[in-house]
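Please study the protein below:
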Amino acid sequence: MASVRIREAKEGDCGDILRLIRELAEFEKLLDQVKISEEALRADGFGENPFYHCLVAEILPAPGEPRGQGIGSKIIKKVAEVALDKGCSQFRLAVLNWNQKAIDLYKALGAQDLTEAEGWHSFRFEREAMRKLVGK
């Protein structure tokens, strides 16, 4: 069974974080949508006013062992702990509609599927759309 240690991310983790973002995007068949750079991760996550809070899960031995060992549950529980400690009233997860294993896990852990419960759709404005919107 894999050993998991979850810790606060450090600026030096940005290269690995970007690699993991790309690996996840490839798994989700969305690699072409990864536009962020290591420098942007550094600025957004470790600058004067960090935009996000990042945790790193160190999994030993290396990833590739069979799924179903509770690693995802441990990570989500840690995110909930950090969110509560920071005074958050909620945290949100995004999952593609075909990733039924993730959907089932989130529901089993107590997450509410807002698509089912409230009919929410998630939208994003990318850089070009934002530029057009503001006339730049």
